[in-house]
Amino acid sequence: EQPVLEPVLPAAAEEQNGTDSAKAPKVNCEERNTTGIERFTLQILNVSQDLMEFLNPNSSDCTLVLFYTPWCRFSASLAPHFNSLPRAFPTLRFLALDASQHSSLSTRFGTVAVPNILLFQGAKPMARFNHTDRTLETLKDFIFNQTGIEARSDVAVTEEDWEGPLPSVLTKGIDWLLLFSVLFLAAFVMYATVRTDSIRWLIPGQEHEHQE
Predict the structure, then answer these.
(1) Can you tell me the distance from the alpha carbon of 143 to that of 141, in angstroms, rounded to the nearest whole number?
(2) Is residue 161 packed enough to be buried (19+ CB in 10 Å), middle (13-18) or exposed (0-12)?
(3) Closest by alpha carbon to 151, among 168, 139, 159, 161?
(4) DSSP 51
(5) pLDDT confidence band for 177 (50 / 70 / 90)
(6) What is the pLDDT of residues 84-133, one digit of tens each?
(7) pLDDT band at 184 (very low <50, low <70, confident <90, very high)
(8) Closest CA relative to residue 166, chosen from 56, 94, 82
(9) CA 68, CA 105: separation in Å to the nearest integer?
(10) How far is residue 98's CA from residue 4's CA, in Å, rounded to a whole number?
C-alpha cells in the first residue's frame, strides 16, 4: 500500500492576541526520554536492516529518515549538516539508509531522487523536506515548523560532522536505481513492440498487407 503524506494544513486553533497568533505544530511528536544517553548520533541502516523494525507503529514518537546514496554529490554535501541534527534535537530520532540498498523502501515511499528526507510519526510518513538549500538551519526550521520542537541553540556543524557517521566524501559506485529504471523501460518497450507485432498478425487482412 502506497503511504500518503499528510497534507500541510494551517493550524486549526489559533490564540488571538490582538496582533499575532501562534500556530499549533502540524505533527504532535512524543519526545523520547534522554536520561542516560550521553552521545546523540545518527544511526545508519545496513543492507540487512529493515526501516520498519526501527519505527514503532503504536507510538507517536517522531523520526527523521534520510534516503541517500554514497556517490550522490548532493547527499555528500548534506551529510555534515544531517550528522549534527541529533545533537540539535536530542528528543527525536534520526536514521539514514542507502537508497540503492533499500530499493523497495524507495519505491514504497516515493523517494526515487536522493537525497530525500521524510518525517515519520510512528511508522507513518507525515512530511517531506522539499527545500533545495539543505543546511543545518533549514533543517532545523523544517523540524520546528512541523513539530514545534525547538533546536538547541549551541549546536553547529563541526569537523567531526564532516567525518561521519554519514559520509561527506563521494565514493565510486553504480547507481542501481537508475540502472533498474533504464532496464525496466527497455524491457517494457521490447514487450510492447512484440505485442504490437503479434496483434497485427491476428487482425484479418493484416497478414496479406504485410506480405505485399
Answers:
(1) 6
(2) buried
(3) 139
(4) G
(5) low
(6) 999 999 999 999 999 888 877 777 787 778 899 999 999 999 999 988 89
(7) confident
(8) 82
(9) 12
(10) 22
Which pairing describes strands 43-45 and 14-16: parallel, antiparallel, or unpaired?
unpaired
Residue 15 pairs with which residues in a beta bridge?
22
Q: Rg of the chain's alpha carbons, rounded to an integer?
A: 23
Provide the grid cell at 23. Answer: 500556530
C-alpha cell at 206: 493484416
Neighbours of 117 (CB within 10 A): 25
Quote the CA–CA distance of 169 and 163 in Å, as a whole number. 8
Residues shown for the chain: 212
Place of cell 537508497: 99
Task: Give SS3 for 147.
Answer: helix
Domains of the chain: 43-162 (3.40.30.10)
Q: Cβ(179)–Cβ(100) under 8 Å?
A: no
Q: Which residue type does 37 have?
A: I
Are the C-beta atoms of 169 and 76 separated by less than 8 Å? Answer: yes
- In degrees, to the nearest 5, what angle opens at C-alpha 138 toward C-alphas 133 and 144? 150
